[in-house]
Design a protein that fits this description.
By secondary structure, the chain is mainly alpha-helical. The chain has a single domain, classed as Tetracycline Repressor, domain 2. About 65% of the residues lie in helices and about 0% in strands. It has a two-stranded antiparallel sheet with strand order 1-2. Helix 8 packs antiparallel against helix 9. About 25% of the residues are buried. GO terms for molecular function: DNA-binding transcription factor activity; transcription cis-regulatory region binding.
């Protein structure tokens, strides 16, 4: 296997899906690639840098989605953009944990600027657009964290590993209870964020009129 930066990241993400974020190590990754562990440091100075590259690569499905066109309805776009973010986080085991705390890179900043310009052109006040995008992002990461944690716990109770399936949520002082419908809960929360933003936009338009 020819080893370059992209190969290392791809294999690291496959390892993530197999063992989970806590078990990912440069030792295991080197063994998977059939190389000595120090060889990895030619591409990444340390594990933190590797995890950052993994987080960026894991977001490719969302990061490469089409940017909004001027004629699009901003409300429909806001919903789909946030849903796309959630879908991408859930594609990888521990995807939300991997993503959390990673700052956007140069290309990401350009895309964010385009999205902000789209919202402003649609009549959304700048401060409201910024806060709504931030709130939607953090809400989505939090929702995905909870969903993936529940999935891991359910798999542990069944004696399995990885994502997928349903299970039960066990608290320290509570009996086993069914998992919540994470997608429905996410959609309800997202609707509240959009309703609040829409109210602000319509209120601003009324004052301006």
């Amino acid at each position: 296997m020819k080893m370059n930066r992209e190969t290392v990241v791809g294999e690291a993400l496959d390892l993530l899906d197999e063992v989970g974020l806590d078990a990912v190590s440069t030792r295991q990754l080197a063994k998977r690639l059939g190389v000595e562990q120090p060889s990895l440091y030619y591409h990444f100075r340390n594990k933190k840098e590797l995890l950052g590259a993994m987080a960026q690569a894991a977001m490719d499905p969302h990061a490469t989605a089409p940017l909004p066109a001027p004629e699009e309805d901003w409300r429909a776009w806001f919903l789909e953009n946030t849903r796309s973010f959630r879908r991408t986080l859930l594609l990888r085991r521990d995807g939300a944990r991997l993503h959390a705390g990673n700052a956007p890179g140069g290309g990401d900043l350009d895309r964010i600027a385009h999205k902000m310009a789209f919202l402003l052109a649609a009549g959304v006040p700048e401060r409201d657009a910024q806060m709504a995008m931030l709130a939607a992002s953090r809400f989505t990461v939090g929702s995905a964290l909870e969903e993936q944690a529940d999935t891991e716990q359910a798999n542990t109770e069944r004696g399995g590993t990885g994502q997928g399936g349903t299970g039960h949520d066990v608290g320290a002082d509570h009996p086993v209870v069914p998992l919540i419908d994470h997608e429905s809960a996410f959609e309800a929360g997202l609707a509240l964020i959009l309703d609040g933003l829409t109210h602000r936009v319509e209120g601003t338009a009324g004052v301006a009129g």
